[in-house]
User: What shape does this take?
Amino acid sequence: AQKVTQAQTEISVVEKEDVTLDCVYETRDTTYYLFWYKQPPSGELVFLIRRNSFDEQNEISGRYSWNFQKSTSSFNFTITASQVVDSAVYFCALSEVTGANSKLTFGKGITLSVRP
Amino acid sequence: GAGVSQTPSNKVTEKGKYVELRCDPISGHTALYWYRQSLGQGPEFLIYFQGTGAADDSGLPNDRFFAVRPEGSVSTLKIQRTERGDSAVYLCASSEAGGYGNTIYFGEGSWLTVV
Assistant: This one.
């Protein structure tokens, strides 16, 4: 069975600090996709990144970067120079291979608070 | 519309009543999903539509829950004989196609409270 573990439940930082959100996953599939979503107080899940299991290159998008390590089944997310607007719940998710279904298994989320 | 649209945004209903939640996916997206999110938890899969048909309803908790997508666009999630444990945010999502790995885009959800 698929499983996503986000061991950190709440993180609080001061603006401009760097912060890393951890994600560890379990799957028996050799091919899979990993995602990060941001959920601000409005409730909408905002897509941040998708990464397939064959691409272990790290990715950087502005202040955001992702470190995918297949050897440790981790897909960690770092925010550099955090801002108050980064305050939200962040979810890591794993895409399960069930025929044509792109069903996602989510972790429990990490609540990030960035203080001015 | 530009994103996934859900109505109502909030619904309070009495235990035992029937509820319908509506979802309008991103234009052109053939795949549509319903997820449920309880407080402090990540979203959990309920059902997936490819076109008009429910391709995977393995996440529906019991037969009080049902969803339709009659014309392959708008979908309605229906809950009969609501129970207090049904209180959650019901999230609708869509993707361009249904194959695994496709990026799924979510709406803002419908907050359901059963009193």
